[in-house]
Amino acid sequence: MEVNREHISAWLQNLQDGICQALEQADGRSTFKEEQWSREEGGGGRSRVMENGAVIEKGGVMFSAVSGKAPDFLFKERAHSDSAQAGNHEGLTFFATGVSIVIHPQSPMVPIIHMNIRYFEMSNGTRWLGGGIDLTPHYIVDEDATWFHQQLKAVCDKHNPAYYPEFKTWADNYFYIAHRKETRGIGGIFFDRLNLRDGMSFEQNLAFWKEVGEAFAPVYTELIRRNKDKAFDETNKQWQLLRRGRYVEFNLVYDKGTKFGLETNGRVESILMSLPAQAGWLYDYKTAEGSPERETLNKLKKGLAWA
Amino acid sequence: MEVNREHISAWLQNLQDGICQALEQADGRSTFKEEQWSREEGGGGRSRVMENGAVIEKGGVMFSAVSGKAPDFLFKERAHSDSAQAGNHEGLTFFATGVSIVIHPQSPMVPIIHMNIRYFEMSNGTRWLGGGIDLTPHYIVDEDATWFHQQLKAVCDKHNPAYYPEFKTWADNYFYIAHRKETRGIGGIFFDRLNLRDGMSFEQNLAFWKEVGEAFAPVYTELIRRNKDKAFDETNKQWQLLRRGRYVEFNLVYDKGTKFGLETNGRVESILMSLPAQAGWLYDYKTAEGSPERETLNKLKKGLAWA
Lengths: 307, 307
Hints:
The radius of gyration of chain A is 19 Å and the shape is globular. The first copy, chain A, has one domain: 3-Layer(aba) Sandwich (oxygen-dependent coproporphyrinogen oxidase), CATH 3.40.1500.10. Chain A is an alpha+beta fold. The longest helix of chain A is centred in the C-terminal third of the chain and has 26 residues, at 202-227. The first copy, chain A, has helices at 5-27, 72-79, 142-159, 163-174, 202-227, 234-253, 256-263, 268-271, 292-298; strands at residues 33-38, 43-51, 56-69, 93-105, 112-122, 127-136, 176-177, 182-183, 187-194, 278-280. Strand 10 of chain A pairs antiparallel with strand 10 of chain B, so a sheet runs across the interface.
C-alpha cells in the first residue's frame, strides 16, 4: 500500500476507534460522544469526548485532518528568526492529520495522560511525523513512573536506540512550565519533524510512529488499573485542582499544538478539550515540608532518569 | 512637586492603600495579606491578596515598580513588524510602575472586575501612561452595565471628550477572546502609550490617569452593594465556573500585562493572581435558548453602546 495521506488518515481513524474502545472498557460506566466537524479552509475531524465517567472525568480522543494555506509561524519557527523566511512560502499549502488525546481522571490518584501523533505535509514535498506521550501524575508513584518510561523506551529501542534518550530529553524540555520552573509531569517522549533519520527511511519512521500510537491504550489502562481504587481525601482533591491549574497554564501559554490549532482557525472545542472540567489557583500556595505534595513537586524536574 | 517616577510610585502605593481599605470594608469579613517582593533585575512590589472573604473569593490589589533592560517585544509591537527595530535598543533600560487589580467574587451575581494603571519610562526619555477598567459580569445586568460605563465616561469627559469613545472601543478590541468570538465581559476603557495628546500635556494626562485609579473603589463597591445579596443556585455557580474559564483563557492567551510580566521575569504569583480560585470547562457547552446565560452570551459583543 502506498504511504500517502489517505493511508495515514485511515490508519489514525482506526487507532482512534481502538483507543476509545479500550478506554470505555477501562471506565466501565461512560461512553464517548462523537461529533464530526469541518472547517472552512479545508478538512475537518472526528471528536470523541467522554465526560463524567467512573474513572475519566473528562477525556478526549480527537482525530483531525485539515488542510489550507501554510501558516506563517511554521516558517518563523523553522528559520529560528522572526521574519527572515516569512516571505518565502506564498502559495504553499499544508495537510496535517493526527490523533490527540488528553484524559483527566476523576481520582487524584490516577495520572493525567496526553498523547499526540501527527503527520504533516506541504505542497512543496516537505513532510514529517511528530508525536509523543507524556504523563502528569497528581502524585508521582516512582514505580509507575519507571514502568511508564520503560514502556516508551521499549517502543523506541525496537526502532532506533538513539530515539529514547533524545526524545525523552525533548519531552523534558517541551513539557516545561518556564514561569513556574516546573515540568508539567514526569515527561515521556516527544519528537517533531521526523523524516529521514540515521539511515532510516520515512517508512521506517512511520512504523515507529505507529507503535507510539498503539502503545497508548495498553499503557494508560494499566496505569488506571493500578491506581483507580486507591483512597483519597479532600487534600488530595484540592492538590489535583492546583495541578490541573498548572496543566491549563502549560496548554494555554506554551503548547504549540494549541497555538497551531487556534492560529489555523481550528475547532476551538476540539483544541481546548485538553482543559479539565475544573482547575484551581490558590495564591502563593506552598506545599508542606515532608508532604506527599512536596515530594511530587520535588520530582517535577528535567533530567530525571526514570527508565 | 516634580512629576517623576518617585512621585508616581508613591501616589500608586497610596492608591493601593485606599482601595484595600474600601474593599475590606465592602467585604466585611476578610482582610488583605501583604507580601513585599523584589526581583533580581531591579525593583519589586507590594502584593495584597484577599482569599475566601464574604464577598471576595479571591482578589489582588498589586503594586509594583520594576526596572531593567528594555524587553525586546516592546519594540516588536511598536514597529508593527517582527524584527525591523529589534536591533535598535541595545543598552536601553526601562522603569515601570503600576497598580493592578482583579477581583473574583464568591457570588455569580457579583461581577468580576479588573483595573490597571501603569506608568512606563525608558532611559531614552520615552515615557507614557496606560490603564483601564473593565467589568466581567457572570450575568449582565443592563442597568449596572450602563451605570458602570457612565461612570467611566464621566471620568474621561472631564479631561477630554475624545477619550471615552476612543478608549471604550480600545477596551472592546483589547478584552476580546478571538478564538471564542466573545468579549471577556462588557468592556470599559483601555488606553496605552498616552503622553502628549490633543494639546494635552503629560501632566494633564496624568491627572486623567489618576482619576481612573480613584474611580475604582467607589464604582466596584457600589456594584457589590447592588448585587451581593441576590439569591443564586447551582446552575448559576456552574455558569460562573465556565465564565471564569474564559477569563483564564483571555489572561493566559492574550493579555499583554501577563505576557510582559512573564517575559520580564516578574513575580509569577503576583502576575497570576488574576486567575480565579476555581474555573471550569465543559466540552462544547451550549446555553439554552431563552436562558439568562444565553442572554448574557448574546451581549458579549464589541460595539454595544452601554453609556
